Amino acid sequence: MEKSLKAAGELFTDYLRRYKLRRTAERYAVLEEIYTCGGHVEAETLFQELKKRYRVSRATVYNTLELLLECGLILRHRFEKGPAQYEKAYNVPFHGHLVCSDCEKVEEFTDSRLNDLIAVAGETFRFAVEHWNLYLYGRCKHCQLKSAQTGKKSV
Amino acid sequence: MEKSLKAAGELFTDYLRRYKLRRTAERYAVLEEIYTCGGHVEAETLFQELKKRYRVSRATVYNTLELLLECGLILRHRFEKGPAQYEKAYNVPFHGHLVCSDCEKVEEFTDSRLNDLIAVAGETFRFAVEHWNLYLYGRCKHCQLKSAQTGKKSV
DNA sequence: TTTGTTGCAAAACGTTTGCAGCCTC
DNA sequence: GAGGCTGCAAACGTTTTGCAACAAA
Fold it and tell me: Which of B108, B114, B134, B153 to mutate to test the interface with A (most CBs of A within 10 A)?
């Protein structure tokens, strides 16, 4: 956790140096928040959290998110509903997402066949895959149980 | 093509009847446009096209898209950039999407292992999968060739 | 000192909503 | 005839942009 933030920070520094971009406190603050909040965050939440501790603007948050995406330190998801969500990507195994249509909670899963399948698809189409997303939508364990108890199919 | 529109129209009629919703010309117009435009369309394009032939509003387009999603006759995608895109779903095999970050074009691919993989993930988590999306982002064949010729890595 | 980056506010964008009138049933 | 659905326009929430002030190099 703590460790992956440190390593990510160093990679971020390398990236900023390489492209002659400035190392500002705000940029590292955004990185830290994503790496320590645990899970998925949306830009607005990120901004509200950071505002408690720093003087930051939404513009900077969005600007920094763009940089972090570019250097591969974070991932962005646009699920069916709501604003985009961000998660740390460094030292995290590739995974798919299970998104519950009822409670909106997101679970993650891995499958060894996923990477192979994606590599094959890329080769078949001579497509240079940079990143990918697999989203499964439906009802999670808890919401199925909940509706079974009340006898209702959905809210 | 023509045939799947007809079948989809009948399923839409069944759905509207079942839920005591009204069969309006506008609703069928939206369905037809999606089934005949071939590929992915965004709501605004749909609206602009329909406006040429009918008196419709954006509100009706969005409202109808919601209905068509609900009865499974269309699919909705939120790729990394841009507004949501819609595609017909009736009589179309499940497929993943290859999205080019350069030219924004979308290719489709199928893999027999996909359905199995998704079923397994669902069972493992006792998650009732309703639908899913697999998006691969990167550079398509043509854009790779294009940058190899100019010697530039990207635009 | 230079100029990339910031905070702020306004604008842009896609989508949703409120409402009076229309048209399906 | 009743009320679900419509077009229109205004409102909404998220993201982007323009700009003067600031601070990293």
Answer: B134
